[in-house]
Amino acid sequence: MNPSITPRVPLFHSGDQVDSAPPQAPQPFRLPPTFGIPNTGPLVSGSLLRSLTVTLPRPPVSEPANAGSSGVWPSIRAAPGGQTSSFHSLLATWRRDSGVTYPGLPSGGFTHTTPPSAPGKPPTDVQKDTSTSLHSVKDRIPATLNPPTCVALPNSLPHPPTDGNNRSVSWPIAPAFPALTQTAPQPVAPTFPAPAADKLPAPPEPVERNEKEEADSEPEIEYEVETILDRELRNGQPYYLIKWKGYAETDNTWEPLECLNCPDLLREFLAQRSAKAGTKSGKRKTKAKPTLSALSMTALPTLPSQPSRESSVREATGASPAASTAPKAVKPALVKTVKVVTADASDKAIRPKAAGVRKAHRATRPPPQRRHALHRGLEAIMAAPLKPNIQAFLALVRNAQGPPISVVNDVDDEGPPTDFTYVDHLIYTAGVPQPDRDALCGCQCPRGCAREFPGRCACRHQDGDEFPYDHNGRVVIEPGYLIVECNSKCACGPECPNRVVQRGMQVKLEIFKTPHKGWGVRAKQTIPKGTFISEYAGEILTFAESLRRGEEYDNIGRTYLFNIDHETADDEDPEYTVDAYHYGNVTHFFNHSCEPNLAVYPVLIDHPHVALHRLAFFATRAIAKGEELTFDYHTDRTGVDAESDGGTGDGVSSVSNDSKLTLQLKCMCGAKKCRGALHAV
Ligand SMILES: C[S@@+](CC[C@H](N)C(=O)[O-])C[C@H]1O[C@@H](n2cnc3c(N)ncnc32)[C@H](O)[C@@H]1O
Description:
Elements: E1 52-55, E2 83-86, H1 87-98, E3 111-114, H2 178-181, H3 211-216, E4 222-234, E5 237-244, E6 253-256, H4 263-279, H5 292-295, H6 321-325, E7 328-330, H7 347-350, H8 355-364, H9 368-383, H10 388-397, E8 406-408, E9 421-422, E10 426-428, H11 458-461, E11 483-484, E12 509-513, E13 519-523, E14 532-535, E15 538-542, H12 543-556, E16 560-564, E17 576-579, E18 583-584, E19 591-592, E20 598-604, E21 614-619, E22 630-631
Parallel strand pairs: 1-16, 8-12, 9-18, 10-15, 11-20, 19-22
Antiparallel strand pairs: 2-3, 4-5, 4-7, 5-6, 12-13, 14-21, 15-17, 16-17, 20-21
């Protein structure tokens, strides 16, 4: 799968958002894979060997939940001291003010709350969770509910800035979707042929760099490698002659090893080369001379952080046969001036112009001698066959949505869990209501739900009015608050900035074997704070079924159960639980840390019933490449560290506060503030 080349969803052209366009009727659009939830029917449980119980935070006040709403709208709870007003009066105000008819509204029972404190702040007087769950996401107190007039946006949408040559470089309203909003810089060499329209390189991924780098560097662009034609050493460093997919032979370029991200092709090339060397020993290859046009696209050297590990080279190549046969190379920033560079160009000559990038990569580059040794090691690894356990794991994650997931095991020979099937969606098991899309309510913002005009989007009014995402698609509301994303009934299209979780995972991750916690997951790129990571996928069970399975899982001290209890009062059991033991995605492998870097948010997308909201992991701080991704199994509130919220109780609750916590599972997170035990059973 190659999201940077083939968008997963049809994209609306930004030009659609013209000022004078009349309001349009909601248009049907194809949803990304994660949007659709296939009905897989009841599942047959296999042997149950592990368990994890994770609980969402509960609402601050045990107000009766949405009585009489037929489960159509999510109930919004009153905060302590907050005022409620009936849905009927709101609806009357809304209809009076907007004239908008809103299909599928409940007949009654919907209440909203005016919070006693500033919007966006979590409640401070939450009670402690006494369940056996590991994690909770706290209910959100909605902000003031303005009449949700969903009308066309005014003629003030920002226009894309230009780079001085009248080329659009970004569209500030929704840079979270760069395929739509960002124009790749073009090489200025007059001889450089433009690729066919359908072969245009996709823009960079939104979370490839840290914010400092983003600010002062050129965007990194990925191009697809068609074939590797040749290899030669330049100053002892291997370079490969690349035929780019969609480009003519005259555009072939020589690229250093670290710029290539096509392990299958490399392996194939090296195998063929060594076979040839066996038959034609002694015959030297002629050095190919790069052409001017080929060199007008220069490469940004990025040495893999751990080049001696399998992680650098062993990647699943995605779901589609196309992806597996045509891996891609990291073909970074295009340089805007033509440089005449000879075949033995030094590193310096081929570096991009952006000062920030140059500095960043200089810092990570080892001295030349060491670099050459690393390259030789890397090539040797590539030429070697994969270990069977890694092969099996890569086969398991091959169909994962999003960027390819790599797998590393430097600890032992363990392979993937044998009783686990990789799925990126939720599976509705017996007794769990499927999403009823007819009962969904959508907003009527035909030109997108702009963050600048939250009061105009009906979806925002289910969610306290605050727009959950910034212009980069990063979450800005506090952990534990409900996110209501736009859905298939909304008039806005898939480019709407209020659709982040439903677009699926965009970050590069690696599953790796830890010494003491089983498998874990780490970042293969820097991840800015607020970035959506992935959704907790698996089977949705009734609570009764989760109890039954939980007992079995507890016996082996492993837990994969995550309660959906955002709406559940402290003294109640949740209605449903997600079980990722047998079915799940990369989040199945997320370990616990007492000082985590992820938080779980409840997200409502395509299910009208808040008791069946989804669970989305977001980065709570900037995460470095190579850092393990963890969340706090015992965060029964918001995922915010207890001390960072002033000890108000909105963050991590203490182990000692939960009578059911045991020291059965020793925590191996290694954090300075490790509490010593996992809230596992
Ligand atoms: C959701 S699974 C995480 C993935 C798991 N490591 C695996 O290999 O499948 C939860 C289990 O991982 C282990 N685990 C997670 N975090 C841990 C930690 N900080 N210390 C010790 N064990 C941990 C425990 O066995 C726990 O029940």
